[in-house]
Write a structure and sequence with these properties.
This protein is an alpha+beta fold and 191 residues long. It has helices at 2-17, 21-30, 80-84, 95-111, and strands at residues 36-50, 56-63, 66-74, 124-134, 137-148, 155-156, 161-165, 176-182, 188-190. Strands 3-2-1-4-5 form a 5-stranded antiparallel sheet. The protein has a 4-stranded antiparallel sheet with strand order 6-7-8-9, with no helix packed on it. The radius of gyration is 20 Å and the shape is globular.
Length: 191
């Protein structure tokens, strides 16, 4: 059932109903003892990567000044994906089937995630995930989609241009140049 419903019940639902940071904060503040699972889409900078345990890799972001840990792979704990998808215990014959769907969804999520390593630290990302909100805290956040965003280079206030590395992002700042305009094809002109 997980593979057959993954696209419609999880991915499409997550893309259509994902909360942004402001809506998530409202849900968090209004939450009580009853767990509520939601889909969330954020753009944030990666503040930490934990790949020390190859079975439980995690990414840390900042949300409203607080750290938010999101599980990546290969083992994801919790039922956030299943519960955010709207499944209820009454939809299943027994508790075992209900739990199996949760594990199967967690395995499906892992299939579409990129490999993350220490080089992701400090970089902006766009992330879609499911999380459980209870008593004002986010728990069991599990990534569904993750991609690095393009870095926005600082703009020079007088030149109205931006400072960017020429050729490779890893080159030394001595090889950076001010980019003042682009050609019609979108290729940057260097100054």
């Amino acid at each position: 059932i997980a593979q057959q419903t993954w696209q419609s019940r999880v991915i499409e639902a997550a893309n259509q109903h994902a909360l942004d940071a402001t809506a998530l904060e409202k849900v968090r503040l209004a939450s009580g003892a009853t767990p509520q699972s939601v889909f969330v889409r954020l753009s944030s900078e990666v503040t930490g990567i934990d790949v020390s345990n190859p079975r439980e890799q995690k990414l840390t972001l900042t949300l409203h000044g607080q750290p938010l840990v999101v599980q990546l792979c290969p083992v994801m704990r919790g039922n956030a994906i299943r519960d955010a998808s709207g499944f209820k215990f009454d939809d299943f014959t027994n508790l075992v089937q209900f739990a199996q769907l949760s594990r199967a969804y967690n395995r499906e999520a892992i299939k579409s995630l990129p490999t993350v390593d220490a080089s992701w630290a400090g970089k902006p990302v766009d992330i879609l995930f499911a999380a459980t909100v209870v008593n004002g805290s986010l728990q069991d956040a599990a990534a569904l989609a993750l991609k690095q965003e393009a870095r926005c280079w600082p703009v020079h206030p007088q030149r109205r241009s931006f400072y960017a590395p020429v050729v490779f992002p890893c080159c030394s700042p001595a090889r950076w140049r001010w980019i003042t305009s682009t050609t019609t094809s979108g290729v940057a002109k260097l100054t």
